[in-house]
Amino acid sequence: MIAGPPATAPAAAATAAQTIAVDLGASEGPVMHGANGALYGLSDDGVPGDAVLEPLKISTISQKPQGGAQHPNGDAITVSKSFFRNGGGDVLVMMQDIYAKWPYEDLGIDDYLTKVDGIAEDVEAAPNSEHFIYVPFNEPDWIWYKLGVDDQATYEVNRDRFFKDWKTVYERIRAIDPDARIAGPNEASYHSRLLTDFLAFAKKENVLPEVMTWHELGSGSLRDFQNHYDTYRATEKRLGIEPLAININEYANRRDLSVPGQLVQWVSMFERNKVYADQAYWDAAGNLDGNVVHTNIPNGGWWFFRWYAGLSGRTVQVTPPRADTIDTLQGLASLDPSRRQAQVLLGGASGDADVAVRHVDPAVFGRSVTATVAEAAWSGYEGGHATPRVLSRTKLNVAPDGSVTVPVTGMDRMSAYRVVLTPAGSGTPAPATVPFTASYEAEDAAITAGQVYTQGTVSDANGYAASGTKDVGSLKEAASKVDFSVSVPRTGLYDLAVLYGNQTGTPSTQLLSVDGGTPAEVTYPSTENWLYRAKKDLTVELTAGAHTLTLAHGNGEATLDRIDLTAHTTPSTVYEATLADVSGSVSYDYRDSSGTGTGALVLGRGSKAVFDAYAPQDGYYTVTTRASAPVKLALHGETVTAPPGRALKLYLVAGNNRITATGYANLRSLDVTGSGSDSGVLTYEGTQATLSGGARLVDSAHASAGSYVGWLGNSDSSKAVFTVDAPRAGAYVLVTRYGHNDRRDNGHAYNTDIMSRTADVTVGGRTQQITFKNTWSWDDFWTLGVPVELKKGANTVTFTNASAWAPNIDRIQLAPVRG
Questions:
Q1: Is the peptide bond before 127 cis (omega within 30 degrees of 0)?
Q2: pTM (2 decimals)?
Q3: Is the peptide bond before 48 cis (omega within 30 degrees of 0)?
């Protein structure tokens, strides 16, 4: 929870293409997926949502003990429900987070032991208790014990007090929970002196932790971690201690979180050394430390971790241009002979790179391969990111020496890239179609009554990430504006994405004009702060050639980071079956590599393939399977038969949707097209609800019909009842447009302690508790979709909360899953 010393910035990268070498013949061991954890990544059961949690195959999370006062949510046992439901591994319990203050108030070891008793009793009695790990102390090198002091005599006095308390607490936990796994010592930064002494003491006194933990929280960790790891392992060996599992249970800075090109540098070094690691908690709980937008929407960082979860088989040796160097091209790679796939994840540098792969086994890949390159870009902490775009798909011959080189051109240092190699088979892969796109930094534009600020540099590693490390703020004067000079190759529609921040506490606006024409109002929803970057998506019509796009002051204020201009196309994504999550009896057929796929997934008895399909907004999309026979698709509680090539109209919620395919077929892909039609969706405004028990309508210019249902809940009698008319019985999606800004300030300068609210929603006699994440302000409304069952005709949808306030409800929508 504290940053290390500033690191020295690396030298400027060369302009020539860099080479990153991958040796498929040098195995590092099974893929561990250990570096995808998060500290306070979950805040409540359901935040983040199952659809973004399950695909990541998260190994560990770190959370506070049940009822801990350090933060208002994130209780370990509470969030473990959704964590284990979605295939999570272990929960680390940060035991000292039972205290309210930071740094923790020191009330003496006797006071702490009473709290240790309660925590151990809770954990020992919890479901899946064998998957909890106790962390008795957090950052003892500076909290309570001051173990990082230079003076040796003072250090020894402090060290001996800590060791005495470690043994006392360790034995107290074991007395209550004999099978407990315990982690420590959990330093704020790596201290060889302390760890050497600690291991010797713990071995002698029989109080060794099962998991060794420390933190890597400075940008210098990208340079120093390998030495820390090697030194630690050598110390274990010298002391005769069998290698312990390691969890770096806080890593990375604000400038790293959400940024694919930064995350790949951290994850590659942890996975290479087969250690677990949890991203640090610098801001708000419940978004996987900056990788999930709202409840269910992936950003660029999420997609990087989705790629990481998709690595299978064994990791192999990767040699970057410069090892152990801050902000340079790094990578990790895997080989899975059973799937006949090799995957390489790389990033952290701009320009061009050659991915030089050696020992491409002809028994696995044949004499030629299909190489597919895709990009996960930075979309901000709160900016949605569509399924990563394929940049190139080419057929390459394997050289006689067993090597193949895949060029990755025009890299952005904030992006991560994935290279997939599969057998080429016959036919020619269809080349990737990449629309025109261009990016323009706000700091490079013409600025009137605004100021350029520097953010997230190596020397200010805990500053927020910004594109180009700069943004434009203080755009609060009537004359404030930013003029972007842009150029497009042809006349037509263009998608305009604006990376912005809004800390006004309510939606703010700017005025968008093209070449001084009639301005159109752009509304920016609230963000956590001015720098917690979100993305606003718009469409503009431009003629071929140069233009000036102006964003001028409207109401309130917003910071501007960058705009992206992309030729507009109807969203259409091909999800290749050979890259889907699979289970059961499956095999891979690469005999035909023509078209946009890399081959086919052969589904057999009891097998399934799960696709992660992105939707830019709630609505109906066209879903088509390319297969040799019909398959069944399961989504939101509905199962439909999908004949090959026949388009189905299915409802997707904004963000990620898990679609499961089963059957007996050679399945090449699942194709999803559209922008989210609302045709056939039933809409009911808050004004149409029957209210009771104090619930009432509240006027709001930001609500869809000018008012919302407020003051709902906190009483048995407080209800909002909607009567809906379903055209047919079956599976529907209930989409609630809601808002709230419930907070509890726990006094931490770097944590925003937002609260979630819940509502008990009853449909057709079935009640489910739904968790609604904080929307950053009372005037902002988000949507959350959940599956429900409706009978034909009249149905009631009831919102209540007898024990606490429910969120404000703007409107509800219901849509049959199959349109």
A1: no
A2: 0.97
A3: yes
